[in-house]
Automatic annotation (TrEMBL):
It comes from the Eukaryota. Its cofactor is Mg(2+); Mn(2+). InterPro entries: PP2C, PPM-type-like_dom_sf, PPM-type_phosphatase-like_dom. Residues 1-12 have a biased composition (Polar residues). It comes from Cinchona calisaya. This is protein-serine/threonine phosphatase.
């Protein structure tokens, strides 16, 4: 695709016997693929969009309290630069149905978030938004009579979740001054809107993991609820910007048990293999008005981008089942050095995951922060001080004397 064109193929294309979803934006800033949906309400007959037409923004109850949200925010310190680095966004994405019968992953990327959502330009610099959603149990819930309409159901949920989360962020009074708080609020409000929308149609009751990355100026904020992962490449080194929320993790297991849940055979309450997610209100014992073992509260990580930061990889769990974080960075870096195209790089990652026999849906977003490809890294040779013992000197002198004789 050329210029600012965006191509989204929902399972119609084929490659190696599997359907692919292509999202191309090789140069410049692409238009928002869901812009038309965001700017206007869908037909009133759609139960999901009937709720999203509300113009007023309701703050989540947990944010009305004066206490600070109990949210993990990790600050990664970097060396101060003489001039603040301003990233130039180039993004691309690729997805494949993989070994699954239905594609349950959705990718969203907006290289000009402020412009596309009618916000005033921020003095902090350019702003971009990227996200990955994976729907957990929609296929398992639907019976055989509904499977034929599953792609349409997933598409409806994709649009609803992406639209609501972005809208809540954009309309939050704390954004962009308090980015972490605005994103956390958006997650919780989307979770509440999710249950209200799905209650209008029992067939749509499900849950989704969510990972979003928001860049404002030189600040990168990643919010995660689930097992998608974001990895930053800083001069060839992988920096994990999220933590996989598995029930077996000690921190998550402690929180789950404190909330009245349990971890059985690696699954939350013996049902889910993630400890955080949006939705899933229909599952007994997971969520309630007073909380529960399954939470939609995201874990946040913030970092200041520098000239050493080259690109960001956002991938679903199917990618990380067969890639270690550093392995993925090394692989993507070599590909970008060859062609410097984030779209092709995303495709390369997906195809490599297929070769490695990943058994899940595959979805990747690659975001480059600079126009040039990653540079070759030159590892300086360490000077080694060598010495010889007195005994060695005697043996060497004896050997030289024998040669002269």
């Amino acid at each position: 695709m050329e210029g600012n064109s965006v191509n989204i193929d929902n399972g119609s294309g084929k490659s190696g016997g599997s359907r692919e979803n292509r999202i191309s934006c090789r140069e410049g800033r692409p238009p928002n693929p869901l812009a038309a949906v965001y700017r206007q309400c869908l037909n009133s007959g759609n139960p999901l969009t009937a709720l999203s037409c509300k113009k007023t923004l309701i703050r989540h109850p947990s944010l009305v309290k004066t206490r600070t949200l109990d949210i993990s925010v990790e600050e990664l310190s970097v060396n101060d630069c003489e001039a603040e680095f301003v990233p130039i966004f180039r993004s691309g994405a690729w997805s494949d149905i993989g070994a699954r019968s239905v594609m349950e992953d959705v990718l969203v990327f907006v290289d000009n978030f402020l412009h596309d959502y009618g916000l005033k330009n921020s003095e902090q610099g350019p702003c971009a938004f990227y996200g990955d959603w994976f729907f957990l149990d929609l296929l398992a819930k639907l019976n055989d009579d509904h499977v034929w309409n599953l792609p349409a159901s997933i598409k409806m949920l994709e649009e609803f979740n992406a639209k609501e989360l972005l809208r809540f962020i954009a309309e939050d009074e704390d954004f962009p001054c308090e980015i972490e708080r605005a994103i956390s609020s958006a997650f919780l409000q989307t979770d509440t809107a999710f249950v209200e929308a799905c209650s209008l149609d029992d067939d749509l009751a499900s849950g989704t993991t969510a990972l979003v990355a928001l860049v404002i100026g030189s600040s990168l904020v990643v919010a995660n609820a689930g097992d998608c992962r974001a990895v930053l490449c800083r001069r060839g080194k992988a920096i994990e910007m999220s933590r996989d929320h598995k029930p077996v993790c000690s921190k998550e297991k402690k929180r789950i048990e404190a909330s009245g849940g349990s971890v059985y055979d690696g699954y939350l309450n013996g049902q889910l293999n993630v400890a955080r997610a949006l939705g899933d209100w229909h599952m007994e014992g997971m969520k309630g008005s007073d909380g529960g073992p399954l939470t939609a509260e995201p874990e946040l990580m913030t970092i200041r981008l520098t000239e050493e930061d080259e690109f960001l990889i956002i991938g679903c769990d199917g990618i990380w089942d067969v890639f270690m974080s550093q392995n993925a960075v090394d692989f993507a870096r070599r590909r970008l050095q060859e062609h410097n195209d984030p779209v092709i790089c995303s495709k390369d990652l997906v195809n490599e995951a297929l070769k490695r026999k990943s058994g899940d849906n595959l979805a990747v977003v690659v975001v480059c922060f600079q126009p040039q490809p990653p540079p070759n890294l030159i590892v300086p040779r360490r000077r080694v001080n060598r010495s010889i013992s007195a005994e060695g000197l005697k043996e060497l002198q004896s050997f030289l004397d024998e040669l002269e004789g």
